[in-house]
């Protein structure tokens, strides 16, 4: 039996290795996992290529007009919408919308709801979306109509549904209403 040297401390001292029984010294043979005597091993479906780009599964082009809008453009549009709503609310109701309490504290949200709903129904995008050059369209290519922009903005004002991003960068309101936010340029 050979001696090994322990080097974990300042002083080197000999250490004897632990002797194992013979059955533990032999390597363990690899066995194939079995599903049981009555069931054959399951076959996995063939691996398919993932979608080549976001928006491919819903028929949108990779780039250019009607391609899927980026998250950055959507966030920039929301910031632009909120900033414009703040300016309008301050102009109409005064500075108390920023610091006050009661009904005036909700006026920025009310102005946002009105401008986003009306502009989306009329032009296909809110103020911030028009600046960011993105817009809202239906997946089936039909016009948005009046109720979809109002429903989408109302759900967006609740905040929680917009935090749930699903497949193809679509929020819960987009999934419910059959819409998607696309590039205009």
TrEMBL record:
TM spans (from-to): 71-95, 107-132
Region (Disordered) residue spans: 26-59
Keyword presence, Nucleotide-binding: no
Name of the protein: RDD family protein
Keyword Ion transport recorded: no
Keyword annotations of the record: Membrane, Transmembrane, Transmembrane helix
